[in-house]
């Protein structure tokens, strides 16, 4: 009976160690610029409940263009154009600051260690390969 308790104790000690997750690996990048781009229209009609019942509401709608933040982030070999997934409450990122990011499946997770360090989700709109720096050959 004692060997069974020893084996059960070893399983309880070793199981959390083997199930521990690897730490997340972040790549480094630099935020180059931020642009406001059009990402749709918001419509608001002039109808109210009392106006609909009485028939006094006008049928015109107010439309307003909605702008979204679009960032250009430069990594070691690739330049990314990204847009926040949370359109209602986007966080303004500091331009010219170093950031850390990771890509998991179809999402880019970005954090600014100098700010609050929170990880936020972004859409990747485009990726462009950076040109390798040209080496200068000295004539002898």
Describe the structure.
The chain has a domain of 75 residues: OB fold (Dihydrolipoamide Acetyltransferase, E2P), CATH 2.40.50. The protein has a 6-stranded antiparallel beta barrel with strand order 1-2-3-6-5-4. 7% of the residues are buried. With 140 residues, it is α+β, with helices and mostly antiparallel strands. Helices cover 17% and strands 44% of the residues. The N and C termini lie far apart (83 Å). The protein contains 2 helices and 6 strands; from the N terminus they run αβαβββββ.
- Alpha-carbon distance between the two ends: 83 Å
Largest sheet at a glance?
Answer: 6 strands, antiparallel, barrel
Structural class: alpha+beta
CATH class of the domain at 23-36 and 69-129: Mainly Beta
Keyword list:
alpha+beta; six-stranded antiparallel barrel; single chain; OB fold (Dihydrolipoamide Acetyltransferase, E2P); 140 residues
Q: What's the layout of helices and strands?
A:
Blueprint: H1 2-19, E1 27-45, H2 49-54, E2 61-74, E3 78-84, E4 98-104, E5 107-111, E6 120-129
Antiparallel strand pairs: 1-2, 1-4, 2-3, 3-6, 4-5, 5-6
Give a quick rundown of the structure:
This protein is an alpha+beta fold and 140 residues long.
